[in-house]
Each structure stands twice: as C-alpha cells, then as structure tokens.
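Hi, here's the filled form for the chain we discussed.

Project: internal
Contact: R.S.
Residues: 166
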Amino acid sequence: MKLVYVAAGFLVAKALAAQGACKPMIDAEMKVFDTPTHVYTTTNVGGHIVTVESIYAGGLMYVKVNGGWSSTGTTKSMADMVQKRRQQHSDATCSYVRDEPVSGEAAALYTMNAQLSNGGKLVSQMWISKAKGLPLRQEDDIESGGSGRKTHNATRYEYANVKAPM
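And the returned structure, exactly as it came back:
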C-alpha cells in the first residue's frame, strides 16, 4: 500500500496547507481522484529505483506490480486519506513559479516546501494544466529527518484513453 500511496501523490497531500498559494496544488491533486488517470511514478531512494504504474478509473485504483495489475481500493478512500493527512500537516508554503508547457500543453508550475512530521523536508514541484486544472507532471525531493536518506519521485500523469486494466 505504501507504493500506492506514493503514486497517489502522498508527498503533496501530506504537507499542503488548505488555503492560499497551495490551493491550486490541492485542487489539482484532489481532481485526479475523480478523473480517469494513468500515473507513472519513478522513485529513487539512495540509488535504488522503483517504478510504479497506477490507474484511477471507475472509482477504483489499480497498481501494476511484477507485470500484473491488481485493485488496491477506491479513489474515494484514497482522497479521504489525503484529506486526513493534509489536516495533520498544514505548515507548507507554496508559490506560483511560471508558466511552462508540458508535452505541448500549457501548464502553470507551482512549488511547495514543507517540514515533515519526522523532521525531514519536502520540496515539490507540480505542473498543472491551465486548461483542465489537472497535474501533468510532479517532481518531489524528500529528505528524511535524522536518517539523512534522500528520495526523489518523478511522476507523469496521463488522461487520454484511460480504462481499468483487464
């Protein structure tokens, strides 16, 4: 479930404040759960690379593990978990950076900085479609408190022709 949580964007949801400059990032993150979405996330933890594919379709979440798809729950349960974590961590600061296209689509780039509950730090960048309000790309850098472990997540979101896996 932890990999699913990363793929679902826990990094943004874990630390976002509910108001102000973080609102575009929050709104985009939550909109994903109501939109058929194919999410590709690559995580690098100390040189160890893990790639995860997730699909949100028909109110269900699916994750590709060892070449096969399995259902991991509902998009509503994931959205509820994201909201609960957001309430616990509202110390983030966010800002609009600039407009920048992603795969030819006009997007607004936002950045977010937060202290994590374990004493670590999170820096996140999210490119949000100007036409649809959905995230197109996300880059997250996490420094774990105390352990010195650094993690980098690169996520790409696709919305065309998304269907539940067979």
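Let me know if anything looks off before we file it.
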